[in-house]
Amino acid sequence: MALAIKPSDFYSLYRPSKCALRLYLQQKGVEPTPPSAFEQVLFRLGQRHEKNHLSTFPEVTDLTGKPAERTLEEIRKGSPVIYQGELRLQVTVDGQVIEIVGIPDFMIKEGAAYSIRDCKIARHATEDRHPEIPRQLQIYGWLFEKNTGKRPSRLEVLKGDGSIETIDYCGEAAAISYLQELLAVLALSEEPYSPVGWSKCLSCGYNDLCMSRAYESQTVALLPDVDQGLARRLKEAGVLTIKDLATRYDETSLSDLKRPWGAREQKVGKRARGILLQAKAMLENKEIVVQKPDIPPSKNYVMFDLEGLPPQLDELDKIYLWGTQVFGEKPSDFRYSLAEMGTEGDRKGWENFLKIARKLFDEYGDIHFIHWHHYEKTKINTYIER
Predict the structure, then answer these.
(1) Whole-model pTM?
(2) Are 159 and 314 in contact (CB under 8 A)?
(3) Which of 23, 140, 237, 322 is the most exposed place for a label (fewest CB within 10 A)?
């Protein structure tokens, strides 16, 4: 029996971050939680982006829901623009019969050839930022070549900023290597190990499932300073739980432990102390004061908080709520700026926040803005550059 594969499976593997377990669970039919409100916003924006582009073509053959035979018929006829055409192929890779079905957004006639174009709301389509995008396009290109006997003239991505990025078509060898990457996960007889992570798992549909498992087993990956590489290295050493870690390591031995760090390895080093304190706090279920907050003395402080659409690596790096409130000798009411709807809504939200900040400085002088972590400072700098 053929194993069904879709080019969109690369999204399951790589987004919101690379996770073999997510692809495995999806293939086994495990239902994720329903899409969040943010994910629904992203989906609607993606649809709008695609439909807007569709409207720019004067003549389009819409094959939405039509069989692959219709797509091949329109290609033979030389239709100028084919929208949502299906490309299908059955092939054997590493002894496994697989059936691949791909539906590129657009196939566009150019002379005697066709280019293949997909619409993405991402602002980058490179291997290092969005590896799922070039992989998906390469499979589309290969499906086109195998079905028509002709190479696509080029592969293109219409990005979220409206620009078109060209991806060189690499042919069959690259496509097969990408399919092998999927098969390595889909052919597993048991779940692959994939340590949980706060930023890694937050936007994943299996977050509830994996986090509930993690808390039940008290996996070492729950500790905030245990990164993915360290969690895997600890697993190799037989350290799976927080209790295992606290029992097996002291500050010196954990500091000397090497774990993957980019293309090389690096000792845990000074982070060892914090990791062991986190383990102690979780095992004893109590807070441990490491250091008092170093906040400059002042009569008043602005408590400053931002809420943004989840960037999903980089599609919509936008803040929708800029919140401030003064506490101290002269407290204020809650003052906020909300991004408005429309193309200029993001800019207006930022500019309204600047007006609020100006009023606070006029009223309180050089007042300190207090925030929880580096998120607020990073976003301020992002908006200044934008």
Answers:
(1) 0.84
(2) no
(3) 237
